[in-house]
Amino acid sequence: MSSTIHPTAIVEENVQLGKNVSVGAFSIIRSGVRIGDSSSIGAYCELGGSHSRELESEHLVFGANAIIRSHSTFYGGSMFGDNLSTGHRVTVRSGTRAGKSLQLGTGTDVQGDCVIQDYVRMHSNVHVSMKSIIENYAWLFPGVVLTNDPRPPSENLVGVKVGEFAVLAAGVIVLPGKIVGRGSLVAAGSVLTRNADEGCLYYGNPAKNGGPLSQLRSWGENRPNYPWRYRFHRGYPNQIVDEWMSEISD
Amino acid sequence: MSSTIHPTAIVEENVQLGKNVSVGAFSIIRSGVRIGDSSSIGAYCELGGSHSRELESEHLVFGANAIIRSHSTFYGGSMFGDNLSTGHRVTVRSGTRAGKSLQLGTGTDVQGDCVIQDYVRMHSNVHVSMKSIIENYAWLFPGVVLTNDPRPPSENLVGVKVGEFAVLAAGVIVLPGKIVGRGSLVAAGSVLTRNADEGCLYYGNPAKNGGPLSQLRSWGENRPNYPWRYRFHRGYPNQIVDEWMSEISD
Amino acid sequence: MSSTIHPTAIVEENVQLGKNVSVGAFSIIRSGVRIGDSSSIGAYCELGGSHSRELESEHLVFGANAIIRSHSTFYGGSMFGDNLSTGHRVTVRSGTRAGKSLQLGTGTDVQGDCVIQDYVRMHSNVHVSMKSIIENYAWLFPGVVLTNDPRPPSENLVGVKVGEFAVLAAGVIVLPGKIVGRGSLVAAGSVLTRNADEGCLYYGNPAKNGGPLSQLRSWGENRPNYPWRYRFHRGYPNQIVDEWMSEISD
What we know:
The first copy, chain A, is mainly β. Chain A has one helix at 238-249, and strands at 4-5, 10-11, 16-17, 22-23, 28-29, 33-35, 40-41, 46-47, 60-62, 67-68, 73-74, 78-80, 85-86, 91-92, 97-98, 103-104, 109-110, 115-116, 121-122, 127-128, 133-134, 139-140, 145-146, 161-162, 167-168, 173-174, 179-180, 185-186, 191-192, 200-203, 208-212. Chains A and B meet through loops of A and loops of B.
C-alpha cells in the first residue's frame, strides 16, 4: 500500500516517505524529512525546517510506525527510532537523538540537543531543557520540568540525567545537572535539588530521601511494587518483559 | 439562520449541526459529531475521530451555545451539556461526560473517562487525569494537576474527586484518589497528599489544614469571603444566584 | 522586497503589512492588524479578531522584525514594540502593551491587560495573569505562573509586579499582588507568598529570603554571578551592554 497524503497537506521536495505513510489535513512536511514505513502524521503538523543553528545534519528522521498527533512541530536536525508516539501539540527542537518507542504526551516540549534512550515515556506537558539525558525505560509524568541553568540566566547550561527505570511523578522539577538515580521515584510536586540515589523514594520541596522503594507496597495489595518492571508491562515487547521477569525467577 | 461553514473547513458525512452553527477556517469535523444550536467552532479545531479504545458510543455530542476556540482537539466518545466554553488548544480525550456550562481554559488537557458536573470552571493549562470526578461549581485555576496513579507506573488508576464549590488555586497538585472536600480552598502551589475537609483552607507542600475558610476576610474588606458563592456571581444564572443568596437571608 | 503571503493564508481587509513580511501557510490575519517591516509569521497562526470586551483600540500592532512561530494566537487590542519573538502555540489576549524585544516561549499564555517593558524574556509555558506588570530585562523561566486573585474566585484582581532584572526560575508561582524586587532571583519550584527584596535569593514553599545574591558564585568559577547583567549579554544590543559594564568599570 502506498502513502496517503491529504490533498490539503503540503509536502516539499526532497522528502522521503516510507510505505503506507499517511499525512493528515493541513500538515506541512519540509525538505529533508524522512519518515519510516507505516507511519501516521496527524493534522496541522509541521515537520522539518525552521532550525536556526548549525547542525550536523538538517535531516529530520523518523523510524517506522511513527504516530505524530495533530498540531505538533518538529524541527529539522533530529532523529527518532521506530515506534515514536506523540500526543497533540508536541514540540521538538533541533539536535535531539531519540531511541525507539519514545512516547511524548500532549503539549510536551523538548528543547533540543537532548539524548533520549529507548522506551522512554513522557506524559502531558513535560518540559525537557536542552542537554538533558534520559535513559531507557524512564517515566516523566505530567508537568515535569527538567532544568539546565544553575545560575539563570547564564551561558553554562548543565543538563539533567534521568537514569534507567526512574520515575518522575507529576509536577516534579529537577534542578540543573542533577542525576536521578536508576529506578528511583520522585513523588508528585517535589523539587529535586540534589542527586537522587538509585532505587529510593524522594519527596517534598526540597526533596528528601524517603528510603528504599522496596518498602513501598502496591496499592491495595501487600506485596512490593518496586522495581516497577516486575509489576507493570503494558506496551513493552514480550522479549523485554521476559528478561525483566527472569531477574526475579532466578 | 443556517450554519456557516468556512470554505476551507472539512465536514465529514454523518455530522449533525444545529441551527446557526459556525465552523472556522481549516477546522475538521469528523463523522459522528453532533453540535447544538448557536455554537461556534474556531479555526484549526479537530472534533471527533481518533479514539483508540472501545467506547459505549463513538459519538461526540455538544449541547447548544458551545464555543470552542482555535487549535482544540476533541476525541469521539464524549458528551457535553449546553454552554461549553473553551480557550485555545484544549484537548479532551474519549469517554468524558460533562454537564452544562463547563469552561476549559487555554491548553487544558482532559485525559478522558472523567465525570464533570455543571458549572465547572477550569483555567489555563489544567491537567485532568483519567477517572477524575469534578462536582458542581468547582474551580481549577491555572496549572492544576489532578493525578491518578498511586504507584507510578501501574494499572491501578484511582481518580481524584473534587467536591462542589471547591477551589484549587494555581499550580495545585492533587495526589491520586484524594477527595477535595466541598467548598474547600487549596492555596496556590500546594501539593494535596491527603483528603481536604469541607470548607477548610489547605496550603503548603505537603498541604496542611489551615482551619475553616470562614475566618478568611475578603481582600480589602472586613467581611467573610467564603463560602465564595455569597460574594461571587459572575456568569451564573440569576436563578442559581438567588438560591445561593437565600441560604444566607434565611 | 515586498511581502510573501502563502497562497493558503487568509488575509482580511484592513490589514497593514510592512515591507518584506512573510505570512505562513494556513495562517489568518484579521482586520485591524498592523505588522512592521521584515516580520515573519509562521503557519497556523491567527492574529487579530476574537476579542470579547470593549477596548481602547481593536487594532493589533506589531513593530518591525517580529517573529511569530506556528500555532500562535494573538487577540485584537494589543501592541508590541520591535523585535517580538515567540515560540510556538503562544496566546496573547487583548489589552497588552509590550515594549521592544519581547520573547515569549512555546506555549506561553498572556491573559491580557498586562504591561510588559523592554527586553523581557519568557521561556516555555509561562502563564501571565491579567493585570501583571513586568519590567525591563526580567526573565521568566519555564512554567512560571503569575497569579492575580487573592481570594479565588473573586472580582478583585491584583496583578503581580516583576521588577527590572528579576529572575523567576522554572516553575515559580507568584501570589497575587506580590512585588518581585529588582534584580532578585526566585529559585526553581518556589512559591512566592510575599514581596521579594531587591537583589536577594528566594527559595522554597513558602519562599524564604536566602540573603543577598552577591554571595552566589558563578557555576564552576569563583566570582560573583549576580547582578547577572555583568556576566550574561547574549542577545542584548552593544549599547545596552556597554552601559551595564560601565557600572562596574567606574
